[in-house]
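ok here's SMI1/KNR4 family protein, seq below lol
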Amino acid sequence: MTEAEWLSANVNPTAMLCSLKDRVTGRKVWLYTCACQRMWWPLLEDRISLQAINATEEGADSGASQKELDEAGAPIPWTERALQEMGAYIGEWGRLTRAEAARRAVAAAPDQEFNSRAVQIQVNADQAAILRDIFGNPFRLAAFPASWRTPTVLTLAAQMYESRDFGAMPILADALQDAGCDNADVLDHCRGPGPHVRGCWVVDLVLGKE
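and the structure came out like this:
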């Protein structure tokens, strides 16, 4: 996959994930899974357990064993050779999301035609946006000097990470600039529209997570 394809509005999220190959960690893949399911939970709350999502996120950060994650209700086991299966797994949840969106739309307006293609495009775009938030741009890896990790920067990042509320990302950008950060990719990501989730590549850089 090229950089232009990675940044494209019409990119296939499974192809994005598979293109990362050995550049991913189990933690990042788990967090991507959780972010997608958390995004779709309002439509699939009868099928997705928030408790299981939370447990998987915490397990990913604590380095829990696969057995522990399974017992906690982790949505998918991780192996280095399972990216294609992971993409298919997430794709199935996307299909269920589209089906439920269609059901609700038809129930609300039975006389109107439902545009399933538009919903599929949006679901794929949402997944791609989460992948970019977690993995950044793998073609332009950002250096992150230790001097940028000031107490203010670390506090802001840690608070957002723990609360899962990333509304302070623009403030983090200001704090990073005050610390001497001049990396446009880092600052633009903080000030961009998001989404931002656990595993956000900038927050991970600040906190030293992989």
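fwiw Confidence is low (pLDDT under 50) at residues 73-80. kinda neat tbh
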